[in-house]
Design brief:
Helices cover 35% and strands 20% of the residues. It has five helices and four strands; from the N terminus they run βαβαβααβα. It has helices at 25-37, 64-75, 92-100, 102-105, 122-131; strands spanning 10-16, 42-48, 78-84, 110-115.
Length: 137
């Protein structure tokens, strides 16, 4: 559906950055996606990293899961990463996903919704800004 000006909506991928069982990321992502979907100018999809069977090590050949994930990243025009702070940084599966989709992230805006610890996720965002291809110059 186009917005009031006839412009197609911006395709935003909301990425759940935690894969832990019992994670809070489900609730935080659900809240954010619900609020974002109220905006007619956004087409919001949620990508749950726990739903991708990524290999434990970077493989010699790209796997089906890696291809499925990078295809979703390639279709998105912008991203929001929902991420907990673990040990003053972000979860390893999120770094793995960032590395898999390196080319697909390029020159696309990214925002962060972070939570956890006394810093409320600030350290995770600091680390993500340094690691995310969209944020580097």
């Amino acid at each position: 559906m186009d917005d009031l000006n006839g412009t197609p909506p911006l395709r935003v991928a909301v990425i759940m950055g935690s894969t832990r069982e019992g994670r809070v990321c489900d609730a935080v992502t659900g809240w954010f996606a619900e609020v974002a979907r109220r905006r007619r100018e956004l087409d919001v999809s949620v990508l749950d990293l726990a739903g991708y069977d990524f290999p434990a090590r970077y493989p010699r050949r790209v796997t089906d899961a890696m291809c499925a994930f990078t295809a979703q990243i390639g279709r998105a025009e912008a991203f929001v990463i929902v991420c907990p702070e673990y040990n003053r940084s972000f979860p390893a599966p999120l770094k793995q996903a960032i590395d898999y989709g390196y080319d697909e992230w390029q020159a696309k805006p990214v925002g962060f919704v972070a939570y956890g610890g006394r810093s409320r996720g600030v350290y995770a965002v600091e680390q993500l800004r340094a690691s995310s291809p969209s944020c580097t110059r």
